[in-house]
Amino acid sequence: MAVEEVAQQVVAPPQKAKEPSEDEKRRKKIAAGGLMKAVMRPGGGDSTPSDGYQVVYHSTVRTLDGVVVESSRSEYGGKGTPIRHVLGKSKIIVGLLEGLPTMLKGEVAMFKMKPQVHYSEDDCPVSAPSGFPKDDELHFEIEMIDFFKAKVVSDDLGVVKKVITGGQGWESPREPYEVKAWISAKTGDGKVLVSRTQGEPFFFNFGKSEVPKGLEMGIGTMTREEKAIIYVTSNYLTPSPFLPGVEGVEEVHFEVELAHFIQVRDMLGDGRLIKRRIHDGKGEFPMDCPLHDSLLRVHYKGMLLNEEKTIFYDTRVDNDGQPLEFCSGEGLVPEGFEMSVRLMVPEEIALVTCPPDYAYDKFPRPANVPEGVHIQWEIELLGFEMPKDWTGLNFQSIMDEAEKIRNTGNRLFKEGKFELAKAKYDKVLREFNHVNPQDDEEGKIFANTRNLLHLNVAACFLKMGECRKSIEICNKVLEANPGHVKALYRRGMAYMTLGDFEEAKSDFNMMIKLDKSTEPDATAALLKVKQKEQEVEKKVRKQFKGLFDKKPGEISEVGTEDVDQPAVENPKNDDKEDSDGDNSDESHETADDPPRTSWLSFLWPKRLLAALGRPGCTIL
Asked: Is 44 in contact with 105 (CB distance < 8 Å)?
C-alpha cells in the first residue's frame, strides 16, 4: 500500500505589533496641510538627526504678516542662546517633533504650522509662553546649527554629553577617585567663563564638590583621554572652587579632556580602609585582577601611621630582596592587605591605609608594630598565577586537588576563620558539578567526599550562627543517605541551638539506633539538650513569675523585673574543631556549645506553657 505523505505547513503565530510610542501617536494626528516646510537655506551633507540625537538650533516665531512673536536670537529680543533638545527625550511641540528630523546641518527652514501642530495640540506636553497666540497659524523659522549623538547623563536632560574623541579602556572616575583634566567653560551664548588650563591639568577629588555637580556627573561617564563637551543647565551648576560665581547663567558648556585619574577605593565604605593606586599596572580592571585562590607575588613596605612613618618591614630589605608569595583566600596575610591586592592588576603599585582591625589586631603582629595602630602598606603586585584548571584531569587527580583544598578549609576552620573555610568547601563543591565518576567505585568515593564537604559547610554555618542554613545543608545529605549519622549529629546541634529540642533529641536518638559506636557522642549531646531545656525553663519561670496569680487589671505589670540575659557567644572565639578533619569519615564531635541565639527564640507558646507546668492553659 502506498503511503501518501502530507506536508503540514507550520505557520508561526503572528507577532504582536510593537506598541507605538507617544511621539509616534502624536505625529500620526497631524492632518494634511497642518505642517508645511519651505527651505530658505540648504544645509550640508546628507545626514539628519534621529531619536537619541541632540539638536541645537535657533528659532524665531512670526505671525503670517511677519510680526515676531518669540525668538531665541538676541536681535529679536531673545537671549542669544541656541535651543537644545534631545529627540525622543525632550518635550517639544509636535510640529518640531516632525520637522526637526528632516533638516540638514546648517539648513534654515520655515515651517508653517496650524494651531493644532504647535501649542493648541490636544494634551500638548509643553505650555505656551505667556501672551503667545497659540490659536493662530504661525511661521517657525528654524536654523539647524548642529546635531550629534548625545549621552544623556541626567534624566531631566540637565546634563548632556557630546563625545568629540573617544577614550581608552572602559573605566570611568567615581568617588573618591582623584582626577586630572583640562577644562574650559563658556555660557550658552559663547561668553568665556574659564579658559583651558595651561601647563598642568586641573586636579580635583571626585565627590568632594570641587567642581559643579553637572560637570562632575559628565566626567563620571568619561574614560581616559576622552574629549567631550558637557552641557550643564543652571540647576546643576552648584558653586565650587573651579567655578564659584554662576548666578544668572542658565547654561554652561564645558569642554573637557580627561587627562588621567587615580583609582581610589573606599574598601569598607566608611573611609577607614583606603586603597590608592599610585602607579598604573598592565591590564584592565577588574578582568585582570587576581581571582580567589590565586598564587600572588608582591613586594611591600609596611609603615606605621605616625609622624615619622616608621617602616616596620620591607621585603626588598628584610626578605633578602625576595617578594612575598601567598595564596589568596587562605588567611595568610592581614585581611585589609588581601582585600586590596585582589583589586590590583599586575605591576600596579598601591598605597593602602588600613585600620587596626583589618591589619594586625586579628593577625600575628610583628614585634615592632604596637597594638591598635593604623598601618600603611605600599604594595606592588608583581604577578599572580591563576588557580589550577581541573579540565582534563583524571578522577584521582581531581580528588587529590579537592583534598588539598578541603584540608586548607579545615585549617582555616581550626583558626576560627569560618567564612574563609566555607569559601574553600564551596569552591570544591562548585567544581564537583562538572565531575562525572566513571564506575561504581569512583561514584562511592565521590559521593562520600561530597557529603563531607556539605557537612563542613554546615559546620561553618553553625559556627557563624546561621542554624537554618546549616539544617538545610544537612537535609541535602540526609535526603541522599538517610542513615548518615554525622549529618544527624550536625543537624541535631543546629536544632538544639535554635531551641527545637524535640527535633534535636530525635536526631541524637536516631544516631544511637543506627550506629552503636556513636552512643558516647549522642549521649553527651542529649545531656546538653537536657541542660539547655532546664536553662530555658528557669529563665521562663523567672520572667513570667506570678503571671497566672495576678488579678484582672494587673497583668500589665508582669515581666517588668530584670532578668539576667545570657551572654551571646562569638563563634570565632570557640577554638575547638567542629569541622571534619583529615580522617573524619567515622568520627563525631563531642557536644560542645554551638553559638547561642537569644533565649527569646525558645519561647513558642506551647513550650512556654509546658515550662510553666500549665500545658492545658488557653490564652484568651
From this structure: yes
